[in-house]
Amino acid sequence: MKLIMAASTLVILGASSTRSGVMAFSRAPALQQQRRAAAIISTSYRLPFSSTSDGVVGSSNNIAGVGHRRRRSRPDTSSLKQKASMIPGYFDGALLMASTTEDQTATMISDSTGEEEMKKLFPNAGKNVLELPPRMRFAPSPTGSLHVGGARTALYNWLVAKKGQMDYGKDTESAFVLRVEDTDVARSTKESENSVLADLTWLGLHWDEGPDMPLAKYGPYRQSERDALYSKIAQTLIDEGKAYPCFCTPEELEEMKARMEAQGIPPRYDGTWRDADPKVVAEKIAAGTPYTVRFKVPPGARVVIDDAVRGTVSWDAEATVGDFILLRSSGIPVYNFCVAVDDACMGITTVIRAEEHLTNTLRQGLILDALGAPRPRYAHCSLILGEDKQKLSKRHGATSCNQFRLDGFLPDAMINYLALLGWNDGTDNEIFTRDELIEAFDINRIVKSPSVFDMDKLKWVNSQHLKKMKVEDILHLVEEQLHAKDMIKTDGADEKKVRDFVFASTALAKQMMETLQDAATNAQEVLGYNLPSSYEDLSDGSEAKEMIRQGNFYGISMKLLEMYESNTFPMPNSNNFLAAFVDESNGMAIVEDTQVGGGDDATSYPQQYKSTMKLMAKEMNVKGKNLFHPVRLALTGEMSGQDVTKQLSLLAMAVQEGSVVNAESAGVVPFESRMERLKTFCDTIPQEFRAPPATKEGGGGEHGSESVTKDSAAASASSTAESTATSSSASSSIDDPLVSYTGPPISALDIRVGKIVKVWTHEEADKLFCEEIDVGEDQPRQIASGLRPYMSASDLENRMVLVLCNLKERKLAGFPSHGMVLCASNEDHSVVKLVSVPVDAKIGERVTVPGVPTLEGDSGEPYAENKIGKQKVFEKIAPYLKTSEYGVPEFCGRPLMTSAGVCTSPIANGSVS
Question: What is the DSSP letter of 224?
Answer without folding.
Answer: G
